[in-house]
Amino acid sequence: MVWQGCNTDGNVNDSKFNEPMPWIGIYIAAASLLCSIGMGTDAFAAIRHKKFWFPCKFFPLNATSLTIIAVATKLSMDLNTSMPRCYDQLSKLSSTVLMCTVMSNFMPSIGTMENREIFSNVIALGILVITLVVNVCIQMATGVIYVFWKEHAVVMFIMLVLLLFLSFSALTVPTTKHYFESKYIKKYEIAVRESSKETDMPVFKKLREDLMKYWTMAHTSCPQFVVARSVTCTASGALCLFSAAILMEAWLRTYLMPGSFRFCSGQSDYKWSITLILIAQVIAVGVGAIGPAFRWFLAIRIRCPKEWRKSFKDEFKVEKYWIQRLVEWRDCPIGLPIKSWLCRKLVHDTRNLVADLCIRMQISIVLVSKIVRIVSTYLIQFLFVFIFCFGELRGKLKQNKSISNIESGSESSQPNVKQDLSRFVLYLEGEDNLVDLMAKRNCNATDCWIRRGRKNQPKYLLQILEKHVSSTGLKGAETFDSNQIPSLGYGKAPNCWALPVVTLTTIAVSLPNIDKMSINCLMRGMTEALRYIRLIDQNLDEKEELIHIRRAADAAWLGVDLYHKWLGVDIRKIAVQATGPKEVIQELADIAKNKLMEYDHKTMAACVGDTPSKLPVKVLAANSMYRIAQTILKDQKRSYEEITSVKLFEELSIMIADILAACLTNIPYLIHMECICSIIEEREERVCRAIYALGLTEKILKLLDQKALPCSDTNKMICVDDWHVFRKKDELHFPPPSDSETDAFNSVDIRLSID
After folding, report:
1. Residue 752's pLDDT is what?
2. pLDDT at 499 over 50
3. How do the residues of the chain divide into helix, strand and coil, expressed in percent and rounded to 5?
4. This model's pTM is above 0.85
5. Residue 736 backbone phi and psi in degrees, to 5
6. Strand, helix or coil at 562?
7. Do 38 and 65 contact (CB within 8 A), yes or no?
8. What one-character DSSP code corresponds to residue 566?
9. Under 8 Å CB-to-CB from 461, ≥6 apart: which residues?
10. Distance CA 301, CA 319 (A)
11. Which neighbouring-strand residues pair with 668?
12. Contact 589, 630 (CB under 8 A)
């Protein structure tokens, strides 16, 4: 009898075991291409944003990237598959070189990790690297790898050195983060004090100068940038280039000196897919070498020819922060509950021995890295001489051009002359020669992001503010809601900035006989405004107490903007069926009242114990609509027998513009909060976002400056409710509701409260 999987002799039938190997090769090639795409995307983003230290954003060290690399380097892990031909042996070497390239690219990403994340990722990477090295050694011993022995030995040594560089560089991350966090707070306080003295400066110019300081501090203390400019990262870039050169040397020798190799005949089990693997991995190595090469080149480029005549004695000094964490670990007591004196002494001595060994290794790694940097500098000194001379000539030409521009009355060359940012550069011990360079480049980066923001300023929002903001102060922000109007829920809920303007806009676009162009301009202006309002509401609501109210505004606006429906009610039908503006507002108030009554008793009874801000989003939206609609109806100054829809639309537009203007006065507060209220890993991105927002709102800020707003203390007038109670004595007084109306509202509340 022949069992399944056995031949007629009873042995295992392995004739089809190797058939899937070409498809596995495609899988390996696809993983290699994913590596090249990830590293290439990082390189493209860095060049596009002129971050030539090449941060790792799209392909950092994490579980996903390690899994992709494990698949891409499968050929190096394959212990017994025959690899006879030239391409087969080259693919083995390219797989190990790819690992070196990826490890060098990973270096900056350790700066953004937490301590536990660093530990787990470095351990996982170490296991993968050691496994790869062991497997390659086994293949060299068994004959699977029978050529390029020297190349494999050198690449494996580089791989282990890169692992040491990455691991010991990770030890400095917590120390540098703590140092830069404290330095940032001190410098930030200095910048705030300097800013408070400049009272006569226009808001935009003042914010621009403040943001240049904040960006300088945030960028120079960015954890990825700190690691990228370290000496170990520079050395890893040199080793990455060296490993890529080894692969190129092996490839060229194979084609230019074929007689120096004796390849075997036959075919690998991977068959035609081995060519795809080799091409994909060579591309990945080439693309991945861009970032490390730039970091290495720029690091040694800083040592200009004028510095070479000086002594390199200071270059071999190991800075304190490299070993500070290890020293602290060695000197701290052991917290293990060991009763035996002998065991405690043994554990303590062992710990000290390991710590001293690690300190010596760290010192050795730093010294070796500095030697690599010095050697690299001398090896390409002639290229640097040419670059230096070309840079001097170019600088003189620019200087002459700027002088001629000044003489001709041009102001374009003057924006950064007075701003000295070197005081706000955060740097480590031994980085003194980087201060002026970083200050100059950071100034240019700030102007670049402001220019990008200027290109996308909100057109329709500016039209609303220029046309409708009232000249008597922002009355609309104070009078849109009356305290004498009872709430439909359980007490008056607080407001965010978005909900009143969304409600007022809904009422405005529901009015009959309004020009479509006016409605479209208002809708587009609100869409642009809500981008800023949401960001302001999010920053003001740090405790997330208004999250339901913000969601209510978003839900209401989504329906109005996309479907012309407010909580499922078609507002266009209301405009068609109504005979005048009073009927529209009354209809919306009634709909809001009915929406609350649609909720079953159990749902509303469960909300009784919550604060009003925790009510369901539809209830909050309905409550806002009812209060604002009733406020408009109770206004005794408005005669609905005479007023037209166009006139009411204009008055509502003024009220909306007033609330928007009052909200946008928080932009300086928002920008300052973006710069201080963030963790160090996110600070650079948030400050960059604040600079871009400044460019976006340049015209808005200048417009609000011209309007002479009633309040300049943004610390006291940051919420819409603060504006609502401002000048309370000037608020319009409405007659209190009649007893019958009060009883009706109370009866509704009672009915909804009963289970």
Report:
1. 29
2. yes
3. 70, 0, 30
4. no
5. -60, 155
6. helix
7. yes
8. E
9. 525, 528, 529, 660, 700
10. 21
11. none
12. yes
